[in-house]
Amino acid sequence: MTMTTEATTEAASETITSPLATSPLATSPLILTVDCNVQNLKLLSRFLSQENYQTMAVKSLPELEQVLIKLNKIDLALIDISGFNRDIWTYCEQLQRRKIPVLVVLPARSSITHCEKFGHGVERLLVKPLVVRELLGVIQHLIGEHA
Hints:
Structural class: alpha/beta
Strand content: 15-25%
Radius of gyration: 14 Å
Number of strands: 7
Largest sheet: 5 strands, parallel
Low-confidence stretches: 4-24
């Protein structure tokens, strides 16, 4: 996931941690990040935590399924569909049924149509490379709209 910003990002750590149990931001919104690229997950998790969001990062569909079973409160799902098969849409629909807003990120050269994304519960769509201000604005809007 490429994000355009003026700041340089430090090297990603080797593990993705979820601050769910020990976070001092326990009242901060929880964003479920889904991406099969571990480096992207690390970058996104670090960026969102700097913006005072909690994150739960998952890198596979089986892992996503387990998170959806275990977690009751998710404020937003941010899903980079690159590298996933069409089964990802089933999870988008599950999230929609649970009233969780879904923000999908996709490559600039994607064959996903406008109609297809709305048919699967996706509320917003962003195309890579991501612009940080736009990403934050969409996240704030979706979380505020569903609060």
